[in-house]
Specification:
By secondary structure, the protein is mainly α. Helix content is 81%, strand content 0%. The longest helix is centred in the middle third of the chain and has 61 residues. The chain is elongated and about 90 Å long. Keywords: Membrane, Transmembrane, Transmembrane helix.
């Protein structure tokens, strides 16, 4: 008895969920249309137009022109940003060289201040 009631409730919940998702998407669409102040038409009919070869040519020309314009703008932005990128790369490489020098200098100073460790590392004194 409990099992059958539980299964029936579960099936009803699963059947109701797609409707809830549909309602959610419908409400979101209505909210978007109200924000954009678009008229909502219930009769959506798509008019099929015939595309002529000249129209296709102009469409492709427009796409190619837009891509060239976007590409040239991106190229100009890249040219303007190149000195900044080069300066940042030089600063980071300089910082890396300074870090390497400081690590080497610190290890030398540490060995000079600890003569027992210096002798042990050179092989003069193997015992601790």
């Amino acid at each position: 008895m409990f099992q059958a009631g539980y299964l029936r409730t579960r099936v009803l919940q699963q059947q109701r969920q797609p409707h809830q998702a549909d309602d959610l998407f419908r409400d979101l669409g209505l909210l978007l249309f109200s924000i954009l102040d678009c008229p909502i038409s219930t009769n959506l009919s798509f008019v099929r137009t015939h595309l002529t070869p000249v129209g296709l040519t102009w469409l492709l020309f427009g796409i190619a022109s837009a891509l060239m314009l976007v590409g040239s703008v991106a190229f100009m932005i890249g040219i303007m940003m190149m000195p900044v990128v080069a300066i940042v790369a030089m600063v980071f490489s300089f910082m890396g060289v300074l870090d390497s020098i400081s690590v080497a200098g610190f290890s030398r100073l540490w060995l000079l201040n600890n003569p027992q460790e210096w002798k042990r590392r050179r092989g003069g004194d193997i015992s601790m």
